[in-house]
ABC transporter ATP-binding protein (Streptomyces parvulus), 303 residues
Amino acid sequence: MTASSAPVVRARGLTMAYGAVGILHGVDLDVHRGEVLALLGPNGAGKTTTVEILEGFRRRSGGEVSVLGSDPERGDDAWRARIGLVLQSWRDHRRWRVAELLTHFAAYYADPRDPAGLLDLVGLTEQAGRQVERLSGGQRRRLDVALGIVGRPELLFLDEPTTGFDPEARHEFHLLVERLAREEGVTVLLTTHDLVEAERLADRIAMLVGGRIRAHGTPAELARGAAARAEVRWTAADGTPRRERTADPSRLVWELHRDAGGPIAGLEVRRPTLEDTYLHMVHRPDDAAAGTEGNTNSEERAA
Ligand SMILES: Nc1ncnc2c1ncn2[C@@H]1O[C@H](COP(=O)(O)OP(=O)(O)OP(=O)(O)O)[C@@H](O)[C@H]1O
């Protein structure tokens, strides 16, 4: 990715209403080539609506959107072939065998991945001859991922991709996404409710709350967000456990050290996590939505 390259995904002032009900209220979003962007937000925030608009499955009410250089509402087959989708809902191919299904989908693309190699990549080689309906939930999800990347997409949409994965499968999947992004330059837009996953995978995170981007930045920037404070824990001289939240933990520790005249018993400093920032954003009253709190990048810049 270079700073000057046009974003793979660009939205400006994106609005969406279902009937009279406004869902998106002016979303600005940029995703650059080879970047993994995680879109976070509570249930009903508008993530799926946003992603469906970007995928060309839903007509927006207003605003400008460009995906791989085209307006998704006018995306043709050639445009669609450059995009990979791993959706929440399973397409119904229950009686197909795993390898057959993958080979069938591969035939739609000009330069598909080799199905056998792909099965190996997602850890389904042993299940190659099994009917889709006989796969476990996590194995089906791996097949979803394989189907999403069989056409070597430039842009991959992952909608809660690791739901139902066991920890090892999740780890393998994370390595796969990292490889796609770092080595093949695939751009990834990920929606997830798993903050650990977002922190692990995302170059940048955008938090969508109530149809607006409330905060955006790298995971570290968001975790350091102005609203979230560190927690300092220690044991007082009389043996009682103490804790205090502060924006300046090193100062508090210095004061405690000075007052104690030496080492502080039971000292722990817990830095604010992405979860702290997320919960703060989600529970912030609506009238603060226009403020800059927690938004570690400039307000003018898109997420
Ligand atoms: N076709 C539709 N018609 C009317 N309202 C809809 C439609 N689709 C979604 N909505 C409403 O739009 C809002 C945003 O929904 P959306 O599915 O985009 O949220 P989300 O952030 O993806 O949520 P989740 O985390 O639960 O998947 C919700 O209030 C939902 O009820």
